[in-house]
Amino acid sequence: MFELDWGQLLWIFTAASVVNNFTLSYFLGLCPFLGVSGRIDTALRMGAATTFVQVVTSICVWLLNTYILPHAPYLRLIAFIVAIASTVQFVEMLIKKLSPALFTALGIYLPLITTNCQILALALFQTNREYNFIEGIFFALGAGGGFTLTLVLMAGLREENNLATIPEALKGAAMSFLIAGILSMAFMGFAGLFSSTS
Amino acid sequence: MASQQGNYEELVKGLWRENPIFIQLLGLCPSLAVTNSVINAIAMGAATTFVLVGSSLLVSALRNLIPKQVRITAFIVVIATFVTVADFTLQALAPLVHKELGAFIALIVVNCIILGRQEAFAGRNPIGASVADALGMSGGFTLALLMLGSIREILGSGSLLGIPLFGAGFEPWVIMILPPGGFITIGLLLAVFAFVKQRRLRMSQERGAAAVERRAA
Question: B131 and A99 in contact (C-beta within 8 Å)?
Fold first, then answer.
């Protein structure tokens, strides 16, 4: 049904996870990035839940794009946001049923995934770039993996940062943004991955 | 009369005291992503203002008809409708700016300022107050975008609104228009605001302490 081009799939995955990292180079999903990056274990769980929602969304978006939206292109945004909101609701019910412990640990962050702009951005980028079913899934995995990576990195840095002495005015949000800026500079280095090979 | 004053209060609070970006830290994604030049900041501010005022108006008018259980979904559908209108309008009027902003116009749907105002204000207040609140909040949002956009464009490309400001000898700080520049600019701005606030607090405390001493003497 789909021919698999592993090179292309690997390219999509790497590009979405590190080179064009959603958080650090597109500024998407900053709210959870700053809100949930206090501790490494919550960061990991949040990353995993977001990745899962992204993969399911990617499948829904592919279905919508293939079967429904060609007939009504102006409904694109509304259809995507409704698909995302119902996916999140579904995941919430699923986790509650399968693992109540994880459900309590994630708490308020689960429903908030709906307003994580990464998810809608993933749907829009996937549509603009005309990815097929398999490419879409790899794109979603890359985006989710990249988000988890930055979230965990940030959580680790902030845990260390809590123990450091810094000027009073920089405490809190200001310091988090400066750390994110430096991380973003570091991630710019990944752009060399592709320019040197092509 | 009382409500007139109340509406004015709703309008002013969003501009600075409850500024959505600098004080509430909401809607950060679009505010950092599109502020690499002033013109993009203006377009984004205008589009967000349109969506926020439009959805506040509609949500507040429909507030008694929307059942509580499905209100978030209803809000989102209203917002998405206005964003679709804004998206198509901008595409027709200013195709170049639309291309530059890319997916970020569509992403206004998930700007937490907008859903936040519907949930916190427009869903339970009359139309006049809701529109005033929406105008104030989007004014504050646009103000913050303009500040970020000006700083980044002046330092990053040595120009303002595309007009060169410095002579040919100026070496642009390219990092400021790249993603890291966005994070660093807002981080430093927040630090400056925190510094001013803490200093003002300290000074008023010292003044209070001095007044107490004087009274004791």
Answer: no
Write down the domain spans for chain B: 2-165+172-202
| Torsion angle of C-alpha atoms A18, A23, A28, A32, degrees rounded to 10 | 130
Interface of B with A in 180-209 (CB under 8 A): 180-184, 186-188, 190-192, 194-195, 198
Nearest CA in chain A to B104: A121
CB-side exposure of A156: number of CA atoms within 13 Å? 8
Look up residue B168 and give its two tokens.
């040919």
Per-residue pLDDT tens digits for A36-60: 777 888 888 888 888 888 888 899 8
pTM metric for this prediction: 0.81
3-state class (DSSP) for residue B143? helix
DSSP B160: E
113-152 of B, contacting A, C-beta below 8 A? 115
Quickly list H helices, chain B. Answer: 2-13, 28-33, 38-61, 71-93, 95-101, 112-120, 127-157, 179-216
State the helix-helix crossing angle for B112-120 and B71-93, rounded to 10 degrees.
140
CA distance A29 to chain B (A): 7
C-beta of residue B171 within 8 angstroms of C-beta of residue A16? no
Give the whole-angstrom CA distance, residue A108 versus residue B42. Answer: 34
Return the HEC string of chain A.
Answer: CCCCCHHHHHHHHHHHHHHCCHHHHHCCCHHHHHHCCCCHHHHHHHHHHHHHHHHHHHHHHHHHHHHHHHHCHHHHHHHHHHHHHHHHHHHHHHHHHHCHHHHHHHCCHHHHHHHCHHHHHHHHHHHHCCCCHHHHHHHHHHHHHHHHHHHHHHHHHHHHHCCCCCCHHHCCHHHHHHHHHHHHHHHHHHHHHHHCCC
Structure tokens at B106: 């569509």
CA–CA separation, B84 and A167 (whole Å): 45
Task: Please state, for a pLDDT cut of 70, what percent of chain B lies above it.
Answer: 96
Shortest distance, CA A186 to any CA of chain B (angstroms): 9
How far is the C-alpha of B55 from the C-alpha of B53, rounded, in Å? 6
Using alpha carbons, select from B131, B142, B121 the residue that is nearest to residue B54.
B131
Nearest to B198 among A25, A82, A168 (CB): A168
CA distance B50 to B83: 9
Please give the ipTM for the structure prediction. Answer: 0.79
